Amino acid sequence: MLTGRESLVRLIGRRRRSPLPASLAALLSPSSPAPVQANVQGSGSAEAARDEAGSSSGGGVEWVPCPVCGECIRGSDYCVNAHLGLFTNPLFILNVAGYIDMLSCTDDPSEYDIKEILEVLSVPEMKEILKELPKDHTTCTRRHELLSTLLSLYHGGTCAALPKRILKWTGACIRISKMADDLLWRVQCHCGQAIRVAQVMDEALDDNNMEMVTRCIDLSENRLCTMSKIEIATSSQPLPLFFSRFSASWVYSKILTLGVSVYERDRRYTDAIRILKLLLRTVASDRRRGYWTLRLSVDLEHVDRPNESLSIAEGGVIDPWVRAGSKFALQRRVLRLSKPPRRWKVPSYADSVKRNIKEVNIEGRPLNCETGAKNVFYGYDGELCGVEQLALQYYADEGGGWQGTHSEGGVWMTIFGLLMWDVMFSDMEDVFQSKFQTAPLDLETDDFYKLRKDIIESQLKKIQDGMAEEMLISSWELHQGTSCRGVNWDRHSLADLRAIVACIGGNLLASLVRHLAVDYRSWSSGIPDLLLWRFLDERGGGEAKLVEVKGPRDQLSEQQRAWILVLMDFGFDVEVCKVSPVAKRR
Question: Boundaries of each VRR-NUC domain copy (predicted)?
Fold first, then answer.
């Protein structure tokens, strides 16, 4: 699968909407909605109130109604709102900004849609209003009958006191202003259009319609350029980074990332270079910068521009958003490309990158030796298995009596989730927008650690002090079955998890958990395949080992190399187990 395709599919889903419209141009270049007017008319308009407040002359005091409570206040104090409480002050701020309209009993209901106001009332409230009128309307019992009667009386003008009575029962009402509604519509429209383009591109790739794919890439390129200029011109206070994934520009950047893979597959390296430079220029704070920088350096080498390729790689190494496997890959590229006479000085990280990784070689009897086929071997028990299961059998027998699990990081994500449960679900601003979330929105950003540093370090201190097993049991018993990012309640038993944390030890476990807490997104993949543990004595002392398993012709990825070196730095026992076919006897 093309790099970026799986990520795009996760965004748009595999569902298919309506067939493509006849006009592709209409689909990929939808007309823009009418410009939004900045001011909102009506009695709740902040602009109107400010104009009224500033119109006093001759030294007299101008009094204006507060849009929240209806109290008359000095026009000069309109924006001070000192008379409001903790809960009403936010309403005032939203009203002044023009995001909401407010209706109180002092307003004239004729300026509003009376049906919209009546919809707020309950059936008992509408009945009480009708009871206060001279004519008997007790025959009305259903909601639609009550609503119809009140509307008829209001528009007939037979009861002059009816409007005030309606407002008396509704009390203060709030609605989204037209300005805010238009603004939200435009944002949703932009994002919806971007997702539609992503869906069209996904379908075009399935149909091998490269003309359509190219048009989607070109449209996304133009849109991203335009949006980045608008964001730079209009942004006064940047939103938290985790909100960026809900923007149209984020969707277009995913389309372009997939577009780079398409162009590289077709050897259109010049086009890929253009898009990569655009992404690096317009998307500043994003973990994908590592991938983009690496691909740009590789593609520049493809078009015989080694000096520029080296410069890009050197810049990527010092980019704070380039991390984990991408940074390690760029460091290796720099070491390969920077040989004299291009560079005479050896980079400071050369020795660290070139460290040897411990290897163990085992042999197995393969089912087949076909190139490109999945590696299947006969296990020690004679049953067919993959290389990971064969390695588990080796370590359980000849390798030293280890217990183990093949989870490719799943067991670590479960342990992290259980030990950091209270941290992940702590009360932080904006990170929980829905009760159905399984993790805070900022989990995969730097803010996760920065905003919770004290509570995270407190948890890590407990782990270092040997309380991890107790924390694990408590979290398991309190939350078992509750959905949480990374936690798999079915795959690992509590007994196994307790044994694992006991054998790893507090210091090593705290180091790894801190590493994930600081940068969960960059390091949540690439962890060695196997986690092994064994107890050394009856008192509970134990040890643990991490093993990356590779079959014939398999190579370590840069992310896997980066993880192994980090684990070595922490002090873990980590190695690579290479499985090869049994040599044929002559």
Answer: 463-581
